[in-house]
Write a structure and sequence with these properties.
With 387 residues, the protein is of the alpha/beta class. The protein has helices spanning 2-22, 50-65, 80-92, 104-117, 131-137, 150-153, 218-228, 234-243, 253-262, 273-282, 312-322, 325-335, 365-376, 379-384; strands spanning 68-72, 96-100, 124-127, 141-142, 170-183, 207-210, 247-249, 267-272, 287-290, 296-306, 360-362. Strands 1, 2, 3, 4, 5, 6, 7, 8, 9, 10 and 11 form an 11-stranded mixed beta sheet that branches. It is globular, with a radius of gyration of 37 Å. Mean pLDDT is 82; it is low at 1-48.
Length: 387
């Protein structure tokens, strides 16, 4: 009996195993599939603009020349020469020598002698809006504006057209206010508002000006502009100079500024406000600008390429850099003046800001030509006498 039960038990186990094997199987749930990673389409390579290509070619050619020499007619004042030369070399690896030429008239003489000898020293030089056109008319320069990539890529960043001369030889890198400066320990704010106020007895023998008969600097520009626009008559200027015993300084304009800061004179008539006096105001010297009712002249500082330059590509690269946002920042921060670009801040100290300017008289190519004719015809000698 027990044997029969064991056999039955074994048969039941086998039968259950068979039935289990024959039953339909339930498919396991599929494992979740991770979404395929999104692969961004490769961005199309940005093609360099033609101007970028021009700049790279200019950099390469300039670096092969390996040097740059500039004549400075006192536009790079104080330690500005060192600051600018160092920044340019750090950017492009090109050493730069900035040589003081002794003023625009001296620069013209140097360039004429060099070109007669067939040995040019300077690659570029800076000048004012009167001496620059004279350099162009003497054939001492050549066209440079079309060679500057920055004037194509950044043309909307300039407040005024930086190309000063019709032939593109002169490019504006700064605008200087030319007017009157006074020692603020000797002259009270508001004491001088008009050139007529300079006729007061207290100013007799206390006014200095750069001799306009020398034909360069802010004084002839200011007085010539007033004469050209008939803002002050010849008799007034002659009477002012004679009656007040105005000192006619034959040296540099920076020397005039230092004399006013020291109190040797109360007033500088025809001063470079944004170039010579901004650093003095920034450093705490007792000087202040006086924006006269008759007007304040705006003078462009221009840079030109020398005809026969030994390192022409380096010269063009420097001009291009000087007009860039970096170059404008370096230069104008050093001299504490407003830039020619809209995307660079104004570095003029608070006491020199342009807001008080009552009437700005900008100098353009036509006015500079008219003033140069006055100088050539010795009109200033008719007013101030012969030297």
């Amino acid at each position: 009996m027990k044997h029969r039960l064991s056999v039955v038990s074994v048969l039941l186990v086998v039968l259950l195993a068979v039935l289990s094997a024959c039953a339909p199987q339930t498919a396991p749930a599929p494992a979740p599939v991770a979404p395929a990673p999104t692969v961004a389409a490769p961005a199309a390579p940005q093609r360099p603009s033609a101007q970028d290509g021009e700049l790279q070619q200019l950099i390469k050619a300039a670096q092969q020349e390996g040097k740059l020499i500039m004549y400075d007619a006192t536009f790079f004042v104080g330690d500005t020469r060192t600051v600018v030369a160092r920044a340019f070399q750090e950017r492009y690896g090109i050493p730069m020598d900035i040589l003081v030429s002794g003023g625009s008239s001296a620069t013209i003489e140097k360039l004429q002698v060099e070109q007669r000898m067939g040995v040019s020293v300077a690659d570029v030089f800076v000048a004012g809006s009167l001496s620059g056109p004279r350099m162009i008319s003497l054939g001492l320069t050549r066209e440079v504006a079309k060679q500057l990539p920055v004037l194509k890529t950044d043309k909307d960043q300039f407040g005024l057209d930086p190309v000063y001369s019709p032939g593109g030889e002169a490019v504006t890198f700064a605008h200087i206010l030319i007017g009157v400066a006074a020692n603020n320990k000797l002259v009270q704010p508001g004491e001088i508002k008009s050139y007529k106020d300079l006729l007061k007895p207290k100013f007799k023998g206390k006014i200095v000006m750069r001799d306009p008969r020398l034909g360069s600097g802010g004084t002839p520009l200011t007085l010539g502009t007033f004469r050209h626009l008939k803002l002050l008559g010849d008799d007034f200027l002659s009477n002012l100079v004679k009656q007040q015993e105005v000192a006619m300084w034959g040296g540099g304009e920076n020397e005039v500024a230092q004399m006013v800061a020291r109190g040797e004179y109360m007033v500088d008539m025809g001063a470079g406000l944004g170039l010579l006096y901004s650093p003095l105001v920034r450093d705490g010297a007792p000087v202040m600008p006086v924006y006269m009712e008759e007007g304040t002249v705006g003078m462009p500082s221009i840079i030109l390429e020398s005809k026969g330059a030994p390192h022409p590509n380096a010269g063009r690269l420097f001009i291009n850099w000087l007009l860039s946002a970096e170059g404008q920042t370096v230069y104008h921060k050093a001299v504490a003046s407003p830039p020619v670009r809209k995307d660079v801040p104004d570095f003029m100290p608070e006491g020199m800001r342009r807001e008080p300017v009552k009437k700005l008289l900008p100098t353009n190519w036509e006015i500079s030509q008219a003033l140069n004719k006055m100088i050539a015809d010795k009109d200033f000698e008719n007013v101030f006498g012969k030297r």
